[in-house]
Amino acid sequence: MGSSNVHVVDHPLVQHKLSLMREKDRSTKSFREILNEIGMLLCYEVTRDLPLELVEIETPISAMQAPKIAGKKLTLAPILRAGVGFLDGMLALMPSARIAHIGLYRDPATLQAVEYYFKAPQDLSDRTVILMDPMLATGNSACAGASLLKARGARDIRFVCLLAAPEGIAQFQAEHPDVPIWTASVDERLNDHGYIVPGLGDAGDRMFGTK
Ligand code: URA
């Protein structure tokens, strides 16, 4: 699958909020709040094709067949730690979702993803799983996260990020061509330190105030 598997969410609200987040002087508080808001908006897009089923309900006036989301509860899978920034926004729309925590850090020398924690529902084979990390840079963490979810049986995985580098998209699509990507922007490139250009800096540090 090629770039048709990449959905750039060009909604004006998303684009405006993303520009605010890129500004280097934006406060930690504001960065975190906006990331949550964009998480909610991206959640709306990534769930657009969820199957519905008709269920009998009663309104105050009459009985009717009403559409509700079919199947098991979705699973939200943030890659720690920056992926957590999307979680509250997504949970606001899907409060009953299950959560899979994926602990991966990026080795600063090799830029490889190193696993340190993984806790997910036992069987993901019948659940839509939304894998999330704000920055798709080298693609190493996203690839490792998708592999961990597949090892638990996941067959319907969707990856959501805020920014993607072309290099990260290429790597992710090479390893996981079956996993579509939703992003607010495809930026220019990666720099020598593995940061996205123009990007927004280190998403984890900016959201948690650790720098
Ligand atoms: N992770 C970040 O937080 N920022 C980047 O630009 C790349 C990876």
UniProtKB/TrEMBL annotation:
Binding site for uracil: 196, 201-203
GO MF annotations in UniProt: glycosyltransferase activity
Necessary cofactors: Mg(2+)
Pfam families, sorted: UPRTase (PF14681)
Keywords from the named record: Allosteric enzyme, Glycosyltransferase, GTP-binding, Magnesium, Nucleotide-binding, Transferase
Domain named Phosphoribosyltransferase: residues: 8-210
Binding sites annotated in the UniProt record for 5-phospho-alpha-D-ribose 1-diphosphate: 81, 106, 133-141, 202
Inhibition and activation profile: Allosterically activated by GTP.
Catalytic activity, EC: 2.4.2.9
Xref: InterPro entries: PRTase-like (IPR029057), PRTase_dom (IPR000836), Upp_B (IPR034332), UPRT (IPR005765), UPRTase/APRTase (IPR050054)
Free-text remark on how the cofactor is bound: Binds 1 Mg(2+) ion per subunit. The magnesium is bound as Mg-PRPP.
Pathway: Pyrimidine metabolism; UMP biosynthesis via salvage pathway; UMP from uracil: step 1/1
Catalytic activity: UMP + diphosphate = 5-phospho-alpha-D-ribose 1-diphosphate + uracil
HAMAP family: Upp_B
Role description: Catalyzes the conversion of uracil and 5-phospho-alpha-D-ribose 1-diphosphate (PRPP) to UMP and diphosphate.
Annotated family: Belongs to the UPRTase family.
Identification of the protein by name: Uracil phosphoribosyltransferase
Name of encoding gene: upp_2
